[in-house]
Amino acid sequence: MKSRITLNEQSSDNHWLIENVRWIDPKAGTDRVGRLHIVDGAIGGMDTLDGDLPKNINCYDGTGLIGGPGWIDLATELGEPGREEDETLETGLKSALAGGFTSVVSSANTLPAIDTPASVQFIQQKAARTALAKVHVLGCVSKGRGGEELAEIGSLVEAGVVALSDAPSPIDSNALLKRALEYCSMFDKVILDHPEVTSLSYRGVMHEDMTQLILGLAPMPAESEDLATSRDIRLVEATGGRLHLLGISTAGSVELCRRAKSREEPLTVGISIANLHCIDEQLRSFDSNCKINPPMRSQIHVDACREGLADGTIDIISTGHRPCSLEKKMQELDAAPFGMVGLETAVGQIVTHVIQPGLLNWIGVFQKMSSRPASLLKIPGGSLAKGQPADLVLINPIERWTVDAPRMMTKAYNTPLHGTDLSGRAIATFVNGFLKFQST
Amino acid sequence: MDFTAEISSGVAPSWRHRHLLGVEDLTGEEITLVLDLAEALQKATDAGRTKLSLLKGRTIANLFFENSTRTRNSFSLAAKRLGADTVEFSSSGSSVSKGETFIDTAKTIEAMGVDAVVVRHATPGTPHLLSRHLEGSIVNAGDGPHEHPTQGLLDLCTIRQQRGSLKGLTVALVGDIAHSRTARSNIWGLLKLGAKPIVCGPATLVSKRWEQLGVEVAHSLDAILPRCDVLNLLRIQFERQSTRPFPSVHEYALLYAMTNERMLRSKQDILIMAPGPINRGVELTPEVADGPHSVILKQVTNGIAIRMAVLWLLLGQKENGL
Predict the structure, then answer these.
(1) How far is CA A189 from CA A135, A194, A241, B90, B299, in A?
(2) Which residues of chain B does A219 touch, with a Cβ-Cβ cutoff of 8 Å?
(3) pLDDT tens digit string along A386-420?
(4) What is the ipTM of this complex?
(5) Does B176 contact chain A (CB < 8 Å)?
(6) Whole-prediction pTM value?
């Protein structure tokens, strides 16, 4: 195949003219074929006349590709510090780039947890040294994610955290969440909560329904999530604090959020891609890679979530990227940790399960993957406006490929999607105008 | 025709499984095949051929990660009566606490040259996991609350032995259905052989969802008692319950224990079964356990025959080039 790239020896590495791409700008709501140029790592503009382009510029022929602002993933687990057997910043960020993500928001559930300015700086500095995708840091809501007393949120904000979260643990204590919402409002920071009442899902392995009844695995009932969602909404209402539900997965949650949003509560709602298409019956394989949290629910819940995505109840899609080393996942189901990796399969999952069935158009997808996460966290990105950092993804929307888990960039490659066919793949990822990833 | 040839010619061709992971995976014909073979093997051993040589030279490992005496001994005896050697492995505590993954433990045992692994584990799906990692045959001897296929088969065997057929019989499984692997294996078997299963117990342990499989759900033993041909009284699995599903053992016994008084309100030919170990005074009173309707010890005897049949079906076939 002819190379898409024509390098100009005189050009800086972050000067590009990307042509013949169907560009999606979720913020402007535009979807049109054209060319976009990058100067000094920033977006220079769309369809600029030849005469107005810099003289020396690299060219990328994006015929057949869809392009837009780079995707942003929330609460991504990157392993460092303390869980390097699962992922490192380097492997995690390479995985992000290969998946079309130009920014990831690192989860605070490291060892130790991100509850001090020093730990925030550790991630910021180490991530910067990798010079791969951008990392924004989440800080803990509670000290050590213990769920008891508030972490030093003011200091964490000062150190640069973009939001606060104890995820993947829920904030079980009602009093703590109320206090955290009040306290965070001083800094205008959002809390990302994983909705789950753990006393109802104690030791649970999978969604409670017929499949669970037959398999005899410990149940995680839908009402465990519904109650937490309901509580979170009520506390948002009471405090006026900002809260993002990190991953909902039940019909009950969707309906509660739909109603809350009709009252214009300051609430945003997220979902993990897996909960848009994976169902509890997959646990019949007893594959520990299907043990995720929120769990794969039954079809009725998946359908409700898909409806919630289509009607705008759900604002943000995240990958739920949670790498777990092979030796951890090789354990029996009770002992195996929750989680699946998701960065590198995200485009394929979205095209196959969201675009192709007509759930969202491409503008909708780029909103959920890019502009909404950016506006939630008030970070740059999510737009093709002139002057924005040139964080871009180019996607081949029709490439069929088979997931080959061990060949992925992520260090642990725990995914129930191994061996499945997906349509759509990230072809090139630019960060600050530098071509950081291209598909081979 | 000698015994080996006799049973080989009759049953082997229709058996297609390498592992026995659950009764759910078997067809009604396959279940009947196991029961027939068990009866034949029992006759053979009763006739003085207590030790057969059907599996001579084969080694079977008992890999028990959960306490068990009866099932383990039953499998051991079954293997020995077929002429196989056995190796015993048991471990309290999880594989994690031992610092070795469960699969590594199993692989180690297999590397000692075993042809089949009989496995019991507290987690559903563990035998399935092993079946993907080991070369030999896997027999599920109980995986958490999921399945205990040989127990299910021996229960079916016992009922058939007493009644000739299961078709149309009303069989109540009473007790802790939620945590019972025996219940699940029985339900599949009873449905496939045309019996009418009822699950009966406190609403906290008996889900309405069972109705979706065509199983009757009841919470009052007294209400269903006059209709039952068989009662299978399941043990309360105190160790698997995270929160107590009923107020007290006393109250449980009041509502669900099979007593002499309840026997009087039962069908005259009712069969009383229990997979054991039994909690006397909780699921049933000693008078009932030891009474004329009880087939609890016959279940134990049949257990060996069923396990012989299963081991032979899984391992004997290779010798026949199948």
Answers:
(1) 17, 16, 9, 53, 65
(2) none
(3) 999 999 999 999 999 999 999 999 999 999 999 99
(4) 0.92
(5) no
(6) 0.94
